[in-house]
Amino acid sequence: MRRRMIGLFLAAAIAALLGTPPVWADPAPVEIDRETVVKTALASHPLVRMAVDRTRAQDEGVGAALADYYPHLTLSIDQLFLNSAFVGGVFPDYQPIAPELLNPTLTQEITDFGRRHYRVSAARNRLESRRQELAEARLSVVYRARVAFDQLAMFEHLLIAAKKGVEDATLHYRQAALRLSSGFGVVTDVTMARLLLEKTRLAEIRTENSLRKAQADLAYAMGQESGLYRTKAGPPSASSPFSLSGSMAYAMAHRPLLLAAQARDREAHNRVDEVRTRNYPHLSLFAQGYLLWGVPATISGAPAGTGLFLPTFQSGVALTLPIFVGGEIAHETQRARMESRRESEKTRLVRIRIARNIRKLVLDMKTQEETLSLDERRFDNARVNLALVEKRFARGLVDGVTALDAQTELIASRERLVADRYRLAMIQDALDRETGRRVGF
Predict the structure, then answer these.
(1) How many distinct structural domains can be found in the chain?
(2) How far does Cα 209 stand from its chain's mean position?
C-alpha cells in the first residue's frame, strides 16, 4: 500500500513537471445546450416527480369522493351464541345454540341535500390546485435550470476574460521589464506590473473555482447527483419586449402559483358548505337479507336434516335527521369558515407578492439594459484608451502607473460587460417565471 502511494505521488509529480494532468483529474466536461438542460430537469428533477405523484393521488381522491353516488353492497357473516328466548319461543331447557348468520346489505343514497356535491367539488378543486402546483413546480425547475445554465455560461466567459487579463498583464510585465533593461524604465513600474500579474492570476483561480461550483449547481438543477458540463458557445438570448401592465395582467391570469391558491380558496368554501349540510336530512334506500343456519329443527321448524332457517328479508327508505350531536356541527362549521378566510387571505397575499415581484423585476430589467449599454461603451473606450497608452508607454511618454490603470480598466470593463449580459438574461428568466410564461417547454 505504501509503495502504491509513493508511486502515485511520483506519477503526479512527473505529470505536474510535464504539464499533464494526473490520473485522478476530473473527467472532461460534457457539452450541453440550454434546451437539453431544461428537458433533463423536467424529466428527472425530484420536485417535478413529487408534484406528479401528488396530482395522481388527488385524482384518486376525486374517485373516492364520487363513490358516494354509487350503491354500496356489504356482506357480513356472524357467528351467534344464543341462550335465551328466540322468535317467541324458548330453547329446550335453556340450552345455548351457536347458529351462523349471513347478512347481505345494499344501500343507495338518494339525497343528502348537497353534501355529496360539495364533497366532490372540494375534491375536484383540490385536484385543480395539485395540477397548478405541478405546473408551478415545472416552472420553478425550468427557471432554476436556466439560471444555472446562464451562471455556468457567465463564468465560462468570465474565465476567458480572466485568462485574457492574465495575457495582457503578462505582456505589460514583459514590456515594463524590457524598458527597465533598456534603461528607459524604473523598478517601480516592474513591481507594479508584477503585482497586476499576480492579481489577474488570483482572479483567474477564483473564477475557475466559481465555474466548478456553477457546474455543480447545474447538475443539481437538472436533478442529477453529479456531472460536469460546459455550455455550447453562444451569447445569451436577447430579452423579449415587455411592459408592466402586460406582464401584470398575464401573471394574474396564468401564474400557476396564483391559480393553485385560488383553487384551494374554492375548496375551502366547499368545505364550509359540506360541513353546514350535515345538519340537513339524509334520505337513503336499503335492502337487507338474512340467511341463518345451524338452528335445530325443533326450534326452526325446518324439515328434518336441513337445519336451515330463512327468517326474512327487508327493504325500505330511511330518512335520517340529526337533532343534537353535542354542538359538533356548529363548531366544525365555524372552524371551516375560519379556514376559508385564511385561504382567502393567503390567495390575496400571493397576488400581492406576485405584483410586487413583477414591479421590481421590470425596474431591474430597465436598469440592467441601461447598465449593459453603459458597459459596452466603457469597454470600447477602455480598449481604445489602452491601445493609445501602450504606444505612449513604449515610447516613454507616460509612466507605468498610467499604463497600469489603463490595463486594469480594460480587464474590469471586459468582465463587467460579460457578467452584466448574463445578469440581464437571468432577470429575464425570473420575469418569465414570475409572470408564468412557459417559454420553450
Answers:
(1) 1
(2) 27
Q: How far apart are CA 418 and CA 203, in angstroms?
A: 15
The set of cell numbers assigned to 108 is: 343507495
Tens of pLDDT, residue by residue over 391-418, are 887 777 776 667 777 877 887 888 888 8
Phi, psi of 267 (to 5 degrees): -60, -40
CA distances from 61 to 69, 106, 128, 213, 313 (A): 14, 23, 12, 43, 35
The range of the structural domain enclosing residue 346 comes to 38-70+112-281+321-435
The CATH number given to whatever domain includes residue 244 is: 1.20.1600.10
Q: What is the pLDDT of residues 331-381, one digit of tens each?
A: 888 999 999 999 999 999 999 999 999 999 999 999 999 999 999 999 999
- pTM, to two decimals: 0.77
Q: Tell me the longest C-alpha to C-alpha distance in the chain.
A: 137
DSSP annotation string for 131-191: HHHHHHHHHHHHHHHHHHHHHHHHHHHHHHHHHHHHHHHHHHHHHHHHHHHHTSS-HHHHH
Give every CB contact of residue 332 below 8 A, 6+ residues apart in sequence: 275, 278
